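ping. complex inputs:
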Amino acid sequence: MVYELSYLILLLPLLSFIVLGLAGMKMQHKTAGLIGTCSLSLVTILSYWTAFTYFTADRTAEGVFQTIVPFNFTWLPLGNLHFDMGILLDPISVMMLIVISTVSLMVHIYSFGYMHGEKGFQRYYAFLSLFTMSMLGLVLATNIFQMYMFWELVGVSSYLLIGFYYPLKPAIAASKKAFIVTRFADMFFLVGILTFGYFTDSFSFSFAGDIVMGQGTTPFIEGNMAKAVAAGGFIIPTALTLMFIGGAGKSAMFPLHIWLPDAMEGPTPVSALIHAATMVVAGVFQIARMFPLWIEYAPQAMSIVVWVGVITAFYAAAVACAQSDIKRVLAFSTISQIAFMMVALGVSLPGHHGSILDNHAQLGYMAGMFHLFTHAMFKACLFLSAGCIIHAVHSNEMALMGGLRKYMPITHITFLISCLAIAGIPFFSGFSSKDEIITACMEYSPVVGWIMTGIAAMTAFYMFRLYYGIFWGTENKEAHEHHTPHEAPLTMTIPLIVLCIITMGVGIYSTLAGFMEWGGSFGSFVSAAGTDYTIHFNTQIAATSTVIAILSICLATYIYKGESQPIADRLYKTFPKLHRAAYKRFYQDEIWQYVTHRIIFRCVSTPIAWFDRHVVDGTFNFMAWGANEGGESLRAWQSGDVRKYAVWFLTGTVALTLVLLAL
Amino acid sequence: MVPVECYFVLSALLFFIGVYGFVTRRNLIAMLISIELVLNAVDINFAAFNRLLFPGELEGFFMTLFSIGVSAAESAVAIAIIINVYRNLKSDTVDSISNMKG
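pong. complex structure:
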């Protein structure tokens, strides 16, 4: 086995979390940051090495990468079932290793500059390590239950990091909101897991290729699917749909998205790592992980995934067009892009030729994973650039920006490149993945395909609205007078440049590979059936979406580039209600507030609370009161007064004697 | 010869005086004396009934002797306890022994 060291990928961040968590307060800021960053660098090197070894290893006879389980041990035996812990390497988990370790390392380096001199610097790095450990554990999980445990750990670290600025009220409220909303969704996930485990006698995933177990590892329990199907055909689809609700909560799908925009209260690098690149795609990853089950047992239920994704993508894109806080715009754009990935997975249909996993029919799976990869890179870059801007301007509001391109040349370029990537311009990474998604949607149904094309156009529009709002337009001289914006330090710009290079490199190669039908692109490594899949663009769709993207960029340029913005103002005056509704996120938060407070709290919780206080508590209080009163009244008898006892004794004896005599 | 009823009357008087003393006195020694009176009343009863019901037999007298022995031992123990109580609490009244009360 060449993967003996893979346990270090989980152990190193855990150790750095423990060290920084326990001894951090006694350390210098620099030491704490270096410990975190060094351990993460080692993890990154290990991950790259693992990925390199894995993807260069020989495929099996079917042309599939082997699924490798270097470690797996029984953690909690429960009769026939047992909960295992271990490490599992297959194409998607190895791909996620690269994404997580790269973005996390960039964020670690970036935070040196961004969090410089903050109170709680050591705590921040401790939480980053905890998060990285949990996220890596989630993708490397060998079974659903382990995945669930790390899933919750990810939620906790997200909660801790959103509430990092805990003296500020909005940060506390946002962290609680994020935790409660995702926990609510996770409840469905847990029910789904238990349903699945109960009916199939297994918590194992199911895989296309061979599984190679390491020495001394606990073997997987084969899921007894026949038993579950015999118990009722709806069971596996139900379990999977319940799990999807958990994933929808984590991935901020409509209507469980409400926590993500608020989560922007956390430090910006955290938003880049957790709320853009890694944690929020856990839901997508979960569906990809369960994909063989979805496709075999619940193909009809996948339309739920599709439509939830379509609605979310449209909703988030519409809201993003009206936000003024730059991080909120990016948050809604993240929601919209994750929805793209969901749709991509949802539109993957069973193959035609009798084969369950057919690469060609399941373009969507590959496209979704590809988009996950490219999106993580360019969205992390966008968030980190936004962090530089916030660092320079000391505000999130677009109104205080404008004309920043003169002051921040590096950030300007990186932001522009990432914007072009997310807009889907050829030779930037977003183009290839988004184009594959739209192609997959077109194959599924032209309606979905055209809707997604429209949303892609909206994406280009709002991203360039953001870009022009920040870097062009009128400079807010008043705000910049006493504090001239300046370029961020090197620790902050280097991660931006690295992420940009990845975006550009992947973009150029995959675009060329897509047109020339070269191998070695993303599809060679990750695809639905696991076989080598050569990406080739559908020229018609590629051309259409490029033209549409360029048109919307032109539109955004026309509206927002100038010093004054007459068209935007006129639009705003013509549709004030629509603008206000979009700005208020179509009142989703208010609806949730109404449903939870007015309906659930008042109509359900209040009567239950009354019942609990008066009936349940009342019964027990009455029993306690009775025992107490009984004791009080019997107390006088136990006076300790010997003479009284004697009188009672005598009286009793006499009475007994009289009774006996009378008988 | 004294009629046998007189013994019973004496015994009953002694018994109730004993009970009365036990109930009303607070002094531990006085209570012990009252108990002795009760026991003596019982002894008299034994002797009297033995003579009345089974003349010539001796079981009742033995019982009386036995009871006297037991009561002697009992008063020895009781006086030892009383002396200890007095030493520890500087008091010989029954109400002062309330350390064990909750």
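The interface with chain A takes residues 19, 22-26, 31, 94-95, 97-98, 100-101 of chain B (CB under 8 Å).
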